[in-house]
Amino acid sequence: xxxxxxxQVLAGYRETVVARLEAGAAFGDIEDxxxxxxxxxxxxxxxxxxxxxSLRDPAEQQLEARTHMAGLQ
Length: 73
Fold this sequence. Notes:
The chain has four helices and no strands. With 73 residues, it is mostly helical.
């Protein structure tokens, strides 16, 4: 797949993430969809996930990050 085609695929995922978040989809469901995407590489999945995470409310971002960090200690 060419670079242009890859960018189009990623743009489609980006638009889907925005639409689903605006529709009130649970972040966990969006994460599951990203994980299940067979047409994305691991790096692309990470980029789409990071994009989705960045659209969340900052307080929710921080709470989830702190929860994950606490679980690692």
